[in-house]
Amino acid sequence: MTYARAIASAAVAVWLLGTGACRAPRSPPPAGNGRARVVSLHDVTTEIVVGLGATGQLVGVGGPVQVPASDAAAIADVPRVDGVESILALHPTVVVGMAVVAERSPELVRFLRDKGIEVWLGHPGTLDDVLDLVTQVGARVQAAPSAGRLADRLRAQMGAIARPPSEPVRVFVYDCCDPAFTAGGGAVLTDLIRRAGGRNIFADVASDWTKVSWEQVIARRPQLIVIHDYEFEGQGGVPEKRKRLAAIRSLAKVPVTVMPLGQSLGGLRSFDALEHLAKVLRGKGGAG
């Protein structure tokens, strides 16, 4: 499994691979008035647009997969896009998303750019990069002041986390699958773990996401396991992941905490994930 495939499971649907027939979107509002017409192709950028109070700039979104209920309600009436024709029919001035969009469908990105449409794709690796992501999206949806205020609030939220303990807790991220799929050194989640007082046991792997053997996991002696709460291609949800871990004697008694995958992808919810991990790693709340 590749990084692109893993992230796609949370926020990029199969429609992105197509460039042909698709469901007709609603008629777009009249062009003009200088306002940005934004299509968002990823949950992360969609959540940022909503968080900036710029939902009115959205003329289309990729079908949300794992967004908060409040965000789902905010975009309930925004047309869904499921291919290049549906995007073009909405006459966007800018398309935003994450780098996985180009990884899965470079021809789509190339086609839109050839049509003169700006396509901006973020690829954060740290929480500082997420703050820049907010700024970049804000500039493109004509909400720069709101982006500045939101970035300041997130920066304060990040700064409120207490100083990590001197000895970091060894953390294994169990995203899915057998062999295990986990976060490497380039994942935002690795930075979250570090800031919260832990150390991703595969932080030395020069990749965002990667496969590892169970023997490798056992050898690195994790003290906490983070399970991602989602299902993809029949690999099972949290109960099945817990069952798999319980079947491995060396990992069966390692404490577990569960996080929605959407908190790990480098969006607004990653700051909530930081608070959650800090609480677990500092023993202020039970893992589970």
Entry keywords:
288 residues, alpha/beta, Rossmann fold, 2 domains, five-stranded parallel beta sheet, four-stranded parallel beta sheet, 11 strands, globular, disordered N terminus
Please characterize this protein's 3D structure:
- With 288 residues, the protein is of the alpha/beta class.
- It folds into two domains: 3-158, Rossmann fold, CATH 3.40.50.1980; 169-281, Rossmann fold (3-Layer(aba) Sandwich), CATH 3.40.50.
- It contains twelve helices and eleven strands.
- The strands form three sheets. The chain has a five-stranded parallel β-sheet with strand order 3-2-1-4-5, with helices on both faces.
- Helix 11 (238-246) links the parallel strand 10 and strand 11.
- The longest helix is centred in the middle third of the chain and has 16 residues, at 144-159.
* Secondary-structure element order, N to C: HEHEHEHEHHEHHEEHEEHEHEH
CATH architecture of the largest domain: 3-Layer(aba) Sandwich
Show unreliable segments.
1-32, 284-288
| Amino-to-carboxy terminus distance | 26 Å
Q: Please, what is the CATH homologous superfamily of the largest domain?
A: Nitrogenase molybdenum iron protein domain
Mean pLDDT metric: 87
Structural class: alpha/beta
Taken from the alpha-carbon principal axes, the silhouette is: globular
